[in-house]
Amino acid sequence: MNKPIIAPSLLSANFLDLRADLETINRSEADWLHIDIMDGVFVPNISFGFPVLKYVAELSTKPLDVHLMIVQPEKFINEVKGLGTMMMNVHYETCTHLHRVVQQIKDAGMKAGVTLNPATPVCVLKDIVADLDMVLLMSVNPGFGGQKFIPQTLNKLKELRELVDATGSQALIEIDGGVNLETGKLLVDAGADALVAGNAVFKAPDMVEMIHQLKNL
Ligand code: DX5
Ligand code: ZN
Prior knowledge:
Blueprint: E1 5-8, H1 18-26, E2 33-38, H2 50-59, E3 64-69, H3 77-82, E4 87-91, H4 98-107, E5 111-116, E6 134-138, H5 153-167, E7 172-176, H6 181-189, E8 194-197, H7 199-202, H8 207-215
């Protein structure tokens, strides 16, 4: 089995010392840097915006995995691209014309990911999964770090793994929310390709070691 892709979530970093946290991530085995953008409308919280992320992007040596928890994410494709983003994730729940948005992200030169909230079933992706580079399953309700993992995610993950494999889709499966060494192990065993980890990494006594352990679940 391949080692999982590990994407530390910047939301749990020390915002007064982002440089130190980013430099630690840079020298760790993390594969990507996960960035949560919120609008206070789609989710009941606001995180950070493009003026801050411009500097984050300059300092990070890891590819950016950007998770947009905003309405009308297509309005910001150019800004997200401007950060040098590798993967742009939009929520299924925010896109009436999801197929169009996915094509726009790809046309802008980024990989396209679609995110599902905990109550959104996997089957809604049946007719688009072949076009996706990633599916991101939320294992908490989006908006906050440090929440408890929702166990039903494991069943959704198995269902999604079957859908991806059956359709020959190249989409990676990423899980976001409440991931730690314990839940991470269950997720990797159930077929997850990538794990987002906020609190588990940034609140760990040794971030580099925690990332190493997640990488070797
Ligand atoms: C929640 C965000 C997550 C969050 C995960 O809305 O999408 O990326 O930072 O944090 P943890 O790993 O602490 O649950
Ligand atoms: Zn996220």
